[in-house]
Structures are given as structure tokens and as C-alpha cells.
Amino acid sequence: MTVYGIPNCNTVKKAMDWLAENGFKPEFHDFKKKGITAEQLNEWCDTFGWENVLNKKGTTWRKLSLEQQQEVIDQHSAIKVLLMNTSAIKRPVVEVDGKAVLISFNEEAYERLLK
């Protein structure tokens, strides 16, 4: 299991705490430091939808110019923005055996999918 995110994100902290409390010992991948590939982002978008991978509620999205925001119209344009602004990726993304299974943190979803 790998958890993708950034360490100072409260949602990532909640997810990591839940996982630890439930006996999981995931590897943590800080995508601000270690990066992320377009291939991985495409897989996540295929799984969750690009609109769910792109965090439009976060500070990073709001700091983009209106022009940059308006250019995001599909998966390809979203990935282009996400590669340049990894903090705009909704987090955490949890992969099990190399397959993305969860995005963000919802305790009920974690219970249902991981227990």
C-alpha cells in the first residue's frame, strides 16, 4: 500500500492515522518532493475522473490565474496543470498493489474498501 500526498495536509494526516490505527503500514510518497508522473495521473483520472483528482477547493487552484483555470477543460489539460502544481492534486490517493483505490479521506469508504 502506498499513500500519495504531502505531509502537512490535514486530510493526509487523518488518513495516515486511520490506516495506522487499523493495522496498515503504508509507504508514504510525498509528491511535492518525489514528483508524480503523467502516467500515474492518467491512471488516477481514469479511476476517479479528472474532476475528482483536481482539487478546485484548495489554495493552489485559487492561486492560479483565471486564464489558467479556464484552460482546464478535460483530462489532458488537467494533468498538464497538475504536473506543474502537484499541490492541486486531491489527496491522499491510496494505491493497493499498484492500483488506485481511494482518493481523499472518508472513513466509511476506507472501512468498506480496506477491511
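That was protein one. Protein two is written in the same sequence-then-structure order:
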Amino acid sequence: MPHTDLPLAELRDCRGDVTEPDDFDPFWEQSLDQARQLAGEVTTAAAATPLTSLTVDDVTFGGFGGEPVRAWVIRSSDRPAPTVVEFVGYGGGRGNPAEHLRWASAGFTHVVMDVRGQGSAWGSGGDTPDPHGSAAAFPGFMTRGIEDPATYYYRRLIVDAVRLLDQLGTLPGVDPDRIAVTGVSQGGGIALAAAALSPTVRAVLPDVPFLCHFRRSVELATTTPYNEVARYLAVHRDRTDAVFRTLSYVDAVSFARRITVPALFSVGLMDDVVLPSTVFAAFNALAATDRRIEVYGFNGHDGGGVAHWQIQVDWLTERI
């Protein structure tokens, strides 16, 4: 597979022309205030699992609209420990706890949030429905409610992520003063949003993050999920302005401008799902001074895999 974007020297200076709406901050403040007023209940129960060397709790918390969202808490000790909150990639769900052993095995408490309405494209499934309908949409999640930021699917998912962070202090094994967020692809984009919107986050580690620089991504990416938007606009030719206005409220480049905590990114130069220039656009937008990006020149959307996770562990151990 060839490199899919600009030469690396140009990528390192790539910032992108991402315009954010004037009411970006009020929009998210109001969205979170509404969700917090409908807090929902946090419940924790021992998970049914054959794992014996780790403790797994099955958690339900109130997300967008106070609606129940599921999560796993996986830990090696009852004592509060530095905590990694993971958001899952496109089409996946929280799956089976046995799929998430690395962080807890390295001494962290690992919280894995389910993805509302997703969980049936790969992995072992999800357990959180999305009870909201949508107007006409292209198959997938990218265009659900896309003509209005108030009804857009990713508004709900981002609010879920921040509401989980709001309630971490009630969960077993969590040190609320040492919280990091991470995720691959969609999960990386959600991690950037969460790091911008939640004051509890102390570090962010997005891998090959999705949801960055939407205009460039939709116009140039040739694969799903971005081409769901392109296919939608090929039918709804008169709705381009409304669609990109909605996407401007969830663009991770705008969230990155508000992130001041340490950040460790990864990018694959042969990635044809998330273009490297869009990752660099978010990375270069960071307000954080403690930032680093690992470049994998001959990898695609897999990024650095386990090798990158080992870098993450060392980097994060130094910080939290």
C-alpha cells in the first residue's frame, strides 16, 4: 500500500483550514448542562467472567439525556490507581472484558465505555442502545441527524463520554486525580473531545484519530466511514452547507485547540481510512506544550499496534 497523503515534511506543518462556529463553546456547555440535569443512576455489579487475576465490574451510568450507558471497569487491585478511559472505534462496542486486558495488567484501572447504538461490525458486541431516531440517513452512523447539530449522533456520543468522566469518582479502583483518555480511530476522536470538555482529564492518547478536519476527510477519503457523508451529499445535493455546519461542532481539530494537558498521538502514513494530514491538523492545533506524535511510515489504520501501546505505557507512567 502506498503513502496516502502529503510527504512527511509537509505533514508536520499541516494545520488545515478548519473554521469553527461562533457558538461552539456555548453549544457544548448547554449540551452538558442538560445532560447533568438528567443525571441518571450509576450502578456497579460484578461481571460474569472467567477472569480470575483481574476484577471486572459491569457499570451503567447516565449519559446523554440521562439515558443508560454501559461500561467495564477492569482492575488488578481495590486500591485507587491511575485510570485509563478507553473509547471504542467505529462499529464496535465494549465487547467482552477478555478483549481488554493490557492496561489493567500494567497496573492501571481500565474503564471501557460502550458505544450507543454500535457494536455489531466487529469485536464481541455492545450493550447500549441509542433510543433516538433519525431523519433520512445513509447506512452507518455518520449521517444520523446530520442536518442539525442538536440532533447529530456524535453530539450524543460525546456527551456520553464526558458524563462518564463526570462520574468516575464513584467507580471502584479509580483515582479521580489521575485520569487519561484514549481510543483508536473513532475512539481517538472522542478522546480528544472528552479531553477538551472535561476538567478531570490529565492526559490524552489518541491513536490514528477519526473525526478530524471533516471537509478534507469527506472530500478525499475513499473508504468508510467518511464516504458515508459523501454518499449522503451525492443524493442530498442542496444540503452541503447544513451538513458541514453540523460537522463543525464535532471536529476534533476544534477540540484540540482547547486541550492543554499532555498529548501522545499516533499516525500511519499508509492510512486510507483516516488521512495523515487530518491527524496532523489536530495534533498541530493542540494548545498543549507537552505533546508528541509517533509516526508509523509503513502502517495504515492499524497504526503502531502493540508496539505503540508499550510507548503509551511508558509515556503515561511518567505523567500520571
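The first helix runs from residue 8 to 11. Keep this in mind for the problem set.
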